[in-house]
Queue: 2 jobs
Job 1
Amino acid sequence: MMRVNVTVNGRPQQADDVWEGESLLYVLRERLGLPGSKNACEQGECGSCTVRLDGVPVCSCLVAAGQAEGREVVTVEGLAQLAGRRTEDGELAPVQQAFIDAGAVQCGFCTPGLLVAADEMLERNPNPSDEDIREALSGNLCRCTGYEKIMDAVRLAAARQQEAV
Ligand code: FES
Ligand code: FES
């Protein structure tokens, strides 16, 4: 058993009695009350559990909680408040709004992971090609949409981001 200290969405958090081999995903969902990251495969294959670890998108089901010690995690719950973003309370991150507006959410199970991955790509690459988008989202499986609406949503978010500059 161990204690894990991790900053989640800008807030220092502590999880006690974490067992060896417990995943970061489990800690987020079951210990820290953040069920936004989904657990579908728990084998690193679907991307529904994607979070940012020190900025980099990872499958949180594959990260041992102990590996997150002292690091910064951003989950889908924190997207609207990411550093430098001036969203009001209750307002969505631009990428979230774009997913809704483009009709890219069906069952929604894949959505949190896609949002985290797409948001990270848009931060690095404000003007992505379709190829860039496909590559950034290649680890995120969606059984419902056939991906075209997801592509539309990310293109829309990129276009809006450009307009806002
Ligand atoms: S639950 Fe982590 S990749 Fe599927
Ligand atoms: S919307 Fe259902 S898996 Fe993507």
Note: The pocket of FE2/S2 (inorganic) cluster (ligand 2) is lined by residues 106-110, 142-145 (CB under 6 Å).
Job 2
Amino acid sequence: MAGPPVVVLGAGLTGLSAALSLERAGVEARVLERATRVGGHAVTDEDRGFRFDRTGHLLHLRDPGVRADVLRWIGDDRVSVARRSFVYSHGVYTRYPFQANTHGLPPEVAYECVMGFLDARSRERPPPRDFRDHCLQVFGEGISRHFMLPYNEKLWGVPATEITAAWCQRFVPVPRVEDVIAGAVGLHDRELGYNASFVYPRRGIGALPEAMAREARGVELGRLVTAVDWRARRVRVGAETVPYERLVSTLPLDVLGRALVDPPPEVRAAVERLRCTSLTYLDVAVRGAVLRDLHWVYVPERALPFYRVGCYSNFSPDVAPEGHSSLYVELAARGPADGAAISRALDALVTMGLLASRDDVLFVRARELSHAYVIFDHAYYGALAVIEPFLREQGILSTGRYGGWNYSSMEDALLFGRAAAREVLDAAGAR
Ligand SMILES: Cc1cc2nc3c(=O)[nH]c(=O)nc-3n(C[C@H](O)[C@H](O)[C@H](O)COP(=O)(O)OP(=O)(O)OC[C@H]3O[C@@H](n4cnc5c(N)ncnc54)[C@H](O)[C@@H]3O)c2cc1C
């Protein structure tokens, strides 16, 4: 395709996938990335011999085309992981998902969960107004009180009443009665359907974008986009102005929205309604082994300061020096983690039996992600209905997990990139 330039903003998995798909079709795109390396959220940092991702990043590959590409990119230096995930509640570990594995909890808790579930199923109720209503209707009082509500409120950082039911109806599956009953009496064979297998590069997820970037020609690093002049169709990068005919943006939608030069007032207002959680997490380098053979554990109880802990070195031993291991700890509190917060988290890891003692900790790194989970609040759909059509009219396709302002995986990011490239090519063909 000869003619007006295509510019891609961001070299995370979506941007890289879009650029590679365009290149395969003979279209070279400039890819402007503010960081000094590719990968966005899917990167690996090396620190004192440990290799840390930005918390757990395992690949669920369902699409055969994406799977073939990913396996080719990361090559043989990979592991296949059959998920070992748990829930820690009332001082015990039960298997994930909570609602189908209440056996092992104190009997009165398991009883409350099962009876609440059966009671909820027997009632006729009006359509749920929000996530809290949805949980009570689908899971009942017990499962909602002991897992669904506290876990999700720690993760989202907002009350469950602020999240729409429309979102969870799409993403939170309704359990079958037989799964709930079987899980309460300890019949784990029923759990087989939940077992999932993941692919992971031996030395961290960063291997994937790095391999993709070796194939992509137009990636420019250290290029912070500060303004998008949608009328003149050009973006500002430092002192340079880059023209485009079609812009594929994978910047978070709120970042893109605030970079638009003089947008219509309704678009500006809609951008200000977008909400997203930040995440503060700890990377913990451990002398010796983590004491439980798990990949990650959900921690719903409000008294514990985090909502999930995972073990990087149980994904692949090659991400920690020999004789060592490593954890990530996703804190419920937002903002910088001070010494007291870190200390509370380490004590909780000992309480949970993941570490024998705090003396096993070699070092801890506190890290923040400005964008972790988009909040599907009551303003969500209305705001997107204003922003997306406006951008499209200006030749701007905003896509990816944060560009499309959604909840999605790395595989989805690769698919979003392909779809964006297809749209650009189709538009060029139609001209
Ligand atoms: C805590 C957490 C755990 C996750 N775990 C998993 C998992 O186990 N499995 C899974 O499949 N998915 C997981 N995901 C989702 C996965 O990380 C994302 O779906 C995927 O990485 C999104 O890629 P993206 O390219 O759309 O966005 P990003 O990775 O955010 O890429 C956007 C790029 O834009 C760049 N950028 C931003 N602003 C500018 C600017 N002004 N100028 C230029 N460049 C800019 C950024 O630097 C970045 O490189 C997880 C996400 C989180 C937050």
Note: Residues 9-15, 32-35, 40-42, 55-60, 224-225, 250-251, 255, 279, 369, 372, 400-403, 408-411, 413 surround flavin-adenine dinucleotide (CB under 6 Å).
